[in-house]
Amino acid sequence: MRKRQRRSERLTGSCMSEELKVTGMVLSAAPSAEYDRRVVLLTRERGKIAAFARGARRPTSRLLAAAAPFAFGTFTVYAGRSSYTLLDADITNYFQEMKADFEQTCYGIYFAEVADYYSRENLDASGLLKLLYVSLRALSNPHLENELVRSVFEMRAMMLDGEYPCDVAEDGSLCESTRYALSYVMQAPVQKLYTFRLKPEILKEFRDVQERIMKKNTGHEFKSLEMIKTLFDIS
User: Fold this and answer.
1) What angle do CA 155, 156, 158 make, to 5 degrees?
2) For domain 96-231, is the CATH number 1.20.1440?
3) 2-93 and 96-231 share one fold
4) How would you classify the pairing of strands 19-32 and 36-43?
5) pLDDT grade for 202, boundaries at 50, 70 and 90
6) Cα 169–193–213 angle (5° rounding)?
7) 2-93 fold
8) What mean pLDDT is predicted for residues 82-98?
9) What is the pLDDT of residue 4?
């Protein structure tokens, strides 16, 4: 009797531990089966995870809006042996203002692709998640250029991954204002990252520096960035 009771307690504890709540954002969503969606979540607690939202493509599904890119909030998932299942979600921000603007949405898709590139399962993603959140909000700021937000986001994402050259702001060939901007972005708390603007010529140099570093250190072609350059004629 005691053996059966202990076995039951172990099984009950195991089942309870498989269902968990995570704070995160949907990076991407794709159709799966007839009515399901497969979502990639960037979570504070579990890093990047993939989860299946059963029936999320049905018009009446309570997961319809939650299983969409940029949905941010608390997700209840069930951890199976090889994948997660999305059970419920409490969404606090859909970034509707950003998604109402086509250009901002394109940049948001690129940011999500970068976050996907730098994140891994079971690694702390709290810093990257916070950076992604404030950067998506910054895209909706009419006083900020999208290219400035993009460059700042890239810089800090690379810093979180430990692959950003710390001496870039000491390059004497750069304008003093550019060096100051680089230094500021490297040191500012994330909530203060998007509190400045740059003159067009300084923004161009700032962006060019970041592009060279990004290309050299990642060697990765981001499809959504190529789309942005083509659609909006960015050289």
Assistant:
1) 70
2) yes
3) no
4) antiparallel
5) very high
6) 40
7) OB fold (Dihydrolipoamide Acetyltransferase, E2P) (2.40.50)
8) 95
9) 38
